[in-house]
Structure formats: structure tokens, C-alpha cells
Amino acid sequence: MKILFVQGTEKISGGERIALDIANNLRNDFESVFFLPQKPTEEALGFYKEFNPHYPKKIGFREVIKELINVINLIKPDIIHAQGTRAAFFIKLAYLVRSKKERFIYTLHGIHFIHKTFPFNRLFLIFERLTNKLADTLICVGEDDFNLAKKLRLIKEEKLILIKNGIDFKKFESIEKGFLREKFNIKNEIIITTACRLHYQKDVETLIRSINLLRNYPLIFFIVGDGPERKKLEILTKNFGLENKVKFLGFQKEVEKILADSDIFVLSTKWEGLPLVILEALALKKPVIGSAVGGVKELIKDNLNGFLFQLGSEKELAQKIRILIGDENLRKKFGENGFNLIKENYNLQEMINGYSKHYENSSSK
């Protein structure tokens, strides 16, 4: 069986990593091909055949759709699998001008359009409802999105399924600690990290503002990731005089090494599907503080394995960080609780089994 994965971005982030995990773990059962916006690194895709149309900056949407149709006709996939709304948009447009329709699976990694302003959020909802009729299945990666998709009636209920994101716990068992402390000569300071795309959605500004309220505490804050808001956030850091407290690390290939050295992980996002980075922090037995939104609430149980705070409240976030800075035993307790919470329900093999079973069922219809 041949599966064409259509990606919505050149970045190897959450949804893209899920697709790679699926392809890697099912390579003996399925042939995987990737249709990508831009050329990824060779090591990111490994042995997979890829098609690289360079959209949307280098060519227009019309050319992208034409290229996608050419790829579909060339490789003749049994299943086309979209990772995210943007990728699904291109498949939908291609399907509207093609007579032959392969099985179309659409995985949602967060329902982003509801956070747009009126009337755009309403228009996107109408568009999704109408065009999702082209999809054979809509997959949600977390319970919050699954329930929301059902409430919004994004697709017929019998076409809506839940396959939770999962991670490989073995990957985190042998990670050596000390990378950050050695590189930055950190002695006794508490290491706080966040790892995300520096985008409006992730609200890293609130996190920096909370660090400013804690400027007299023995801490150092690392921001892992890149994106359109980086310059703005660097200026904010400079204006607060926090250059010695806040470090921008940019994109890092081995984020787990940084997480392993962290004492506290924070994600101050405005909305989220089911964040892999929180799963990874929990797998490393780190206490997590997250905004009380979407899939973050599914993974973080307040006062059990971390803290939740009201979205956008730097004062409440600073208060939660302050508690963990001063209580090493609580940090350890939260870390152990978090690991135990996710090890059964969010493991990679369960996720892979879910997709494998669904591919088999889809191909037999």
C-alpha cells in the first residue's frame, strides 16, 4: 500500500514529526511518499521519496495544486494523508478538479481558525464543514480537539476518530544531562525552558514578562525555537534588561538534551492540539507549567504534575514559577506524577497501531 503524506510547512515540528514517526514505524507495511512545501534536510526524511514544489512564496497556489495533481497521478497512492489544515486545503482543491478520488485522511493538529476574529472564524468554519465532505476521515490527536470538532460539526460523527499523539519513551531513557549547564557555565541557577515556534499563537511574550517579575530570583530562561516574533521578543528582552537571564537558542535539532537539563518547562500558548513538547518534558520527568487551553489541559493536571495558569496572566505565571523555584521536592513529585500519567496513554506504539489499523480499514473500503 502506498501513502502520500502532504505537509503544510517545511518545518519539522509537531505534525511533521508525527508523519515521520508513522512512516518510520510502518515502512515494512506501507510505502511512504512526502509532498513538501520546501526542501527538508536529508536526515529529516531519510530514505523517503519526496516531491518539493516550493510553495507558497516561490510559486502560486495554482501551480501548487497542479504539482500536487501531477504527483498523485505519477505515484498513484492508495491513501492521501494531510497533516494539518493547510495541507488539507491543497488536497481539497486538487480533489475538486480531479475525477478520481483516492482515500483522503485529514489529521487536525489543533483547530486554529476559531481563534481568528469575526467574521473570518465563521467563514472558515463554513468552509471546513463544506470541504470536509471530501475527506474519508478526520483524525484528532487529543480529546479536547475531538470534542470540539464534534461540537462544531466539522464532519459526520462516523468519520471522526481520535488517535492520540504518542512518543517513544525509550528515546528518553539514556539522555545524558549536563549539556546546558556545561555550555553556559550554569552553577546553581534554576533552568527554565520553553520550546516552540516563536509565533503569536505561542505567546512567549507573556513568559518573558513573567521572567521580568522574577528578575531577582536565581534562574536562567532558555527559549528554543525560531519564528516571526523572534526579533520582537529579543527587543522586549533587551528593554527589560534581561539579556543575562533570557537566552534565545534558535532551532535545535536535539531538543530533548535541553529538556533533560531543565528544572521547569513552560508553555504559554494561546491554543494547542496535543503538544508533543509537553509529552517529551513529562517523559523526562519535568514539572510543566502551561496555559489552561486545549490539549495542554489534557496533559497537565493542576497541582498533580504541574500548574495551569490563566492565559496571558504573567503575574499568575510568575507566581507558579516562583513556587517551583523554591520547592525541589515538589518539582520531583510533579515530574514523577507526569511520567506516570502519560506512559500508558500517550506512547508511540499505541499511536502507530491506531494509524496502521486505520490505513488497513481505509484501503479495504
Can you walk through the features of this model?
- By secondary structure, this protein is an alpha/beta fold.
- It folds into two domains: 2-166 and 347-363, Glycogen Phosphorylase B (Rossmann fold), CATH 3.40.50; 169-342, Glycogen Phosphorylase B (Rossmann fold, 3-Layer(aba) Sandwich).
- The protein is 42% helix and 17% strand.
- It has helices at residues 14-25, 42-45, 61-75, 85-96, 120-131, 143-152, 179-183, 204-213, 230-240, 255-261, 276-283, 294-299, 314-325, 328-342, 348-363, and strands at residues 2-7, 31-35, 49-51, 79-83, 103-108, 137-140, 160-162, 190-195, 219-224, 246-250, 264-267, 288-291, 306-309.
- A seven-stranded parallel beta sheet has the order 3-2-1-4-5-6-7, with helices on both faces.
- Helix 4 links the parallel strand 4 (79-83) and strand 5 (103-108).
- The model has no long low-confidence stretch (mean pLDDT 91).
